[in-house]
Amino acid sequence: MTPEHPTTTGPHDLALDPPPGCPAHGRGPGGLHRLYGPGAEDLDDLYEQLREQHGPVAPVLLHDDVPMWVVLGHAENMHLVRTPSQFSRDSRIWTPLLDGAVKPDHPLMPHIAWQPICSHAEGDEHKRLRGAVTAAMATIDDRSVRRYIYRSTQRLVNRFCERGRAELVGQFAEHLPMAVMCHVIGMPEEYDDRMVQAARDALKGTETAIASHTYVMEALSRLTARRRADPQDDFTSHLIRDPAGLTDDEVREHLRLVLFAAYEATVNLLSNALRMVLTDPRFLAQLNGGQMTVPEAVEQSLWDEPPFSTVFAYFAKQDTELGGQRIRRGDGLLFAPAPGNVDPRIRPDLSANMQGNRAHLAFGGGPHECPGQDIGRAIADVGVDALLTRLPDVQLACAEEDLRWTTSIASRHLVELPVRFEPKPQQDVMVRPTHGALPPPRPVIPVSLDFTPASTAAPVAPPLATRLPPPGEPRPAATVPRPAPEPAPAPEPTPAWEPARRPNAWRRFLAWWRGY
Ligand code: HEM
């Protein structure tokens, strides 16, 4: 950090703390804002104060009053992640770590401690590790994953559909990504409530976090050993067999990275997208008016509530300048999608929707840009879509003001999303969506395509799932076909609303695009 930054003091040096109610509350040595503790309950609000006071890059204090920069501007965040010649993700060059200001028990140590994973690697080593991860990801068949997401959604909805009530964070959003990721990496049999609890626990840093972390790591070690001995056609086997020659430890650490990164971020994305679809008048009106697809709602959520508010961290490799601030070699900088996405220079009107614009920071950028974004988006798109199709009358079961979030520097997590709906029967997870036995869905203006139901069936609107991808929406990322395709599913009964005739070209395209 620059010499202007205060020297580090301990967290319990109360003599330096102003009394509660004092305008300086929430500030630490040197009058710098703390990103933790009293005064930092509303981080979004704090980021706006910092932007006003310091511009697009602001000096702040982390726990133990460790100095840090938080990058608030959109362009400055982009510059940070896209300029590896100046900024690195390798924490071993961070001055407060080198000079002992960061203690081993620092609460952010799990993020700070350098690990031999692609997130922390640079240059050739980053290319080697990330290359293996992205090559293994390229073998994942998009359509079969989408089908799996759809079926997992049906399984989860079956658990609560007859009750007419559910809590969608705990009963849906926290489960779907774990079910999908366990399938993708090749341990579907390990997915259960305990695995979800363990991941949640390990990431929340509760008292049992270490035991939970061990539970997950043991499952990943068993998987690595099994696939090393007997490769299959899954992410783990491809990671092991990659020419990069990853060791067992490297394989296990990358499985952990993928499982946890995917789990934490996608739970937030699913919860936020569901909350938005259920409460935001812009989405309710637009979804019901047929102009807004679920993927567009998900994309808007990535702008307004990025699943990672900030990412710890980038480190300056040399003295430089960013956003008008003088950055010293060894300084740490928080990459910050949450304030970056609402930078008034790119979004003067926050209520304007961002349809068709994917320039948000939610997935990062540059060499470390999230390689799992297609899977993350697919889980949210298909999961939200299939849930709304299954429960078309779902609505929030509490006042919107009663929704609560837990906030940390890294993310903002919706605690609960209670909903109610008319009880529905269980559904065979292999069967495509059917509205035959369901109450009338919310009024939807059909898209101008041939979705005419069979003449004997009651006229129903198409499920939200059948909305078109917006014009210009790219096709899903190209995938490399698996050498041994998964066995064809059992023949599916024709749903009641399906026309008996062969689906037209558009329907076949939609089925291909949606993957189920
Ligand atoms: C919707 C959810 C997701 C969001 C918002 C998200 C966001 C991010 C962000 C912001 C980064 C860090 C970029 C940086 O260091 O500058 C990242 C890295 C990463 N993500 Fe994701 N992610 C999501 C889902 C996933 C999924 C589903 C996977 C795996 C299937 C995944 C795997 C990774 C990996 C391996 C990295 C490290 C890449 C590297 O350092 O080279 N993520 N993600």
Automatic annotation (TrEMBL):
Coiled coil location: none
Polar residues: compositionally biased ranges: 1-10
Compositional bias (Pro residues): 482-496
Family annotation (InterPro entries): Cyt_P450_B, Cyt_P450_CS, Cyt_P450_sf
Biased composition (Low complexity): 458-467
Stretches for region Disordered: 1-36, 458-500
UniProt family annotation: Belongs to the cytochrome P450 family.
Protein name, per record: Cytochrome P450
Source organism of the structure: Streptomyces phaeoluteigriseus
